[in-house]
Amino acid sequence: MLNFPTDKTYHEEEKENVDFAAILTGKEEVPEVDTLDTALATFQSTNKDEKDDLKYSVKVTDIDKIKEVRIDMGKPHEKEEKVVAKLYKSETPSGEVMGKLCDGTINSQELKGPLRGKNTKELVRKMEKGEAYVDILTEDNPKGKVRGKIKKLAPA
């Protein structure tokens, strides 16, 4: 069960602006990881002033020693590891994290792998097709602790 902080302002803002979301669990990892840890990643396409930035936020429930959070391209239950964006990286992971881990903006210059040199609109297209997922790697699970497919949310 996802049990995230209930900051009213955050939820009201997110409800209006989130375009995509991923619920991350160990069941989605390849191979599956037996854990109760979960996470939520949300994304908002800005498309303002001719910019094509993609805002993101990642919240976690008691995940220990997080090394990296990234967006990979691939299909459900396949471990292709085509990293296209890094959302968080720590060379010296600390203890458990509960709540917001990171937030920021992805722009075209930050895309990697098969999307290097492309516009973030291409990443959005992959998200719309269900071809992108978020993966959290930890010290104890360097190949992935929790993972979730990025899904387009229905308009409110």
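That was protein one. Protein two is written in the same sequence-then-structure order:
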Amino acid sequence: MIDNVETKVYETGGSMSSEDKLAVATFLYKHLDEYGDPLDDILKSIEYATNSVYGGKVLTAQLGTETCGAVILNNTGMVGYIPETILVYIAVHENYRGKGIGKLLMKKAIEETNGNIALHVEEDNPAKFLYEKVGFSKKYAEMRYIRLNYGIFKHG
């Protein structure tokens, strides 16, 4: 574990600046590697967490002024039948992986939320082991019905 890592929490209605939002989104875009999404989608999840009716949280792990990890949590507004929170994104800077920062962020995310938390993870993602280590279990296989350009495509 690296000493002196501090976590910062941005909440709904808080004071996360546009510059901070872009910085966190850019960090995630870069460090999610092949498991990432387009920058615009990451920015949408941050906007949802910080400015929506349901809200959520944005967490960062800082080593001095350097961001070494980030998490986006979106509240669902549901209770029981759907988890109350979706962990949308989590990433650790490649230079700090395997040093406890991911575990620190996961524990902080659990601490900062109420109710159940869901996340989506690809079977081949090495972070899956971290999620299991902190208590996540596989409940369902996700399937999606995706509509593109007015055509209908099944993807599962």
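Residues 5-155 form a domain with the Aminopeptidase fold (CATH 3.40.630.30). Keep this in mind for the problem set.
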